[in-house]
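Q: What would this chain look like folded?
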Amino acid sequence: MRRLFNILLYGFLAICITASVGSGLVYFLLSRSVPDYDEDFTVAGLDGPVDILRDSSAVPHISATSAADVYFAIGFVHAQDRLGQLLRARRRAEASWPSDEILDLAPAVSDALASYAAGVNAWLELVSAGGRGRGSPELLIADERSIAAWTPGDSLRIARSFLNGLLPGSAREGMPSISSAIIPADRQRVPELFATDPEQRLDAWAMDGDRTATGTPILAADISGSLSLPSEWYLADLQFSTGPVIGATMPGVPFVIVGRNARVAWAFRTFPVPDEEAPRGPSTVQAAGFLTMLELFARSADATDAIGVAADMLPKGMEALAIDRETVARWPRAEAVRASSFRDIRLAELEARQSIFSTEGAIGVQRDTVSSVARTLLPLMAKELWFVQSRDSIEGTDADVLRRELLDRLASWNGNMDRYSPEPLLFWTWVRALQQRILKDEFPTAEQIWTRPNPDFLYAVLSNRRGSAIWCDIRLSSPRETCEEQVRAALDDALGWLVDRYGRDPSTWTWGEEHTLDMQWSPISSRGLLTDLLSLQTPISGDPFTQFLTSFGLEEGRPFLVGAGSNFQAVMSISEEAGSYYIAPAGQSGHPLSRFYDNLFPSWIQGEYLAMSTDLSLARGGASGLSRLTPATSDNPRMSEGRSE
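A: My prediction, written as structure tokens:
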């Protein structure tokens, strides 16, 4: 017996030691690719030394004597912090547009792309020299055996992919369209039914100086898209000899997409247009024009100068906004006549609510979670039910009492999609059940049509716009069902679903139970257990139509799971009194072991923006690192291993 005990004991100890050694080895390999922000490098391809100062949030402030060296350095830090993301973006862009198209780019843009590519390749060469864990943790398990050198064409394709993602689904290259021919002949055509959402959306609004506390204009910018780890956006301060440029960059592209220089701030807006009116997929020429516009924005002297550039190069379907100390300018100057979206309606309400805005007030508008969808649809859905009781019952509950309690709650609700409230959960479950009842008989196999929330379609039907109420009738039944009957039946469907899921006490229901953010780590290739371990989950407020935008998923079991939403927000003013502020959902680093992997996540959830400053003296306070890139000499033409101070 003693011998058996010793065998088991030694076996257990051997397993523990093996597991410990294995874990230690894995940690060692992963930790080798965590960037050291105090490490200096000698690299080929630079004209002069470059300083990279990382502030307390690891935002790089890049200082160099030439624009080429600044663009080299932003390529270097993109690869240093987001190598996996760079390679993933390149792989995706190459899948859509596999060949380079030779273009005659503006010299400044061509030089910038070449310098950026040289910076990325400088980091790749350091990684290939060994000792850096292949530069990114997912590369230890990905199928990328070797990493091809970065080229200017890679950046051009990524810019084209970005523009493609701004288009509605059927207008994007490589995306099939949903034909309106499948509408039954006896149904009124409702164009909103087949509208598809873009992968990313740009939004912006500006306030003239006569409506701000400081007398200088304010520009608020919002970008919505995938909420993933790392974030799709990378914050950077590019200190050119002509002046600084700070804002949101996109890994793979050297220019600031949304941001400001010392004199001008700029942002963009895309419009929700019907699919048939949307431009088709962007060309390489359009992508080149977009990059040229961004390069010129960085050197603009005032808002009028910037908008003059946009007038020649802005892609169709976008609006550019720019401000300086005195002016708000936009292109196109006259907005095309189109129906306002639900977000536009709420924004107009918030702008009209107060006469004078501060940057804090603009931030409050961006973080608003009151839904105009609820305030518009709920009176149409509940107008009869607030006064008529039901004789139906739900198993295990008194349906009439439960319905009356919930309808009373909705009657006093202001439409705020607060994560701790039950009303948003009831409202959207009801809307989802109603849309399914109305559309499932016409499109029994096209689940994306009747599961994706479409309040524009429901508004047309419930308000009987041009006879659209006919959609409430079930085609396969003999009687003609009315919208009031469908609304009542959908409410019972929703209550049954909620009672089965959460019990009969509505006080225990919360929107955040279903409306949960699932921000996952995005590896280069396949997802797996590691992706699940590195993801972030939390209840979150908002909906797809609030100013702080959070999307819905398409999973049957988790219909309100959030995987996309507002992933960059900025409020900018060209004045020392007001300042500029930004926030992104994760951190600067794409490495899970870095302390800057998700350091911005709590601030993003709470709506606490970071000061957006180009003052290097402020960046030095609490700086997380300072590194220098030194050009290789003729005696040392190749890149040397970095040294750590």
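Residues 33-336+573-632 form a domain with the Penicillin Amidohydrolase; domain 1 fold (CATH 1.10.439.10).
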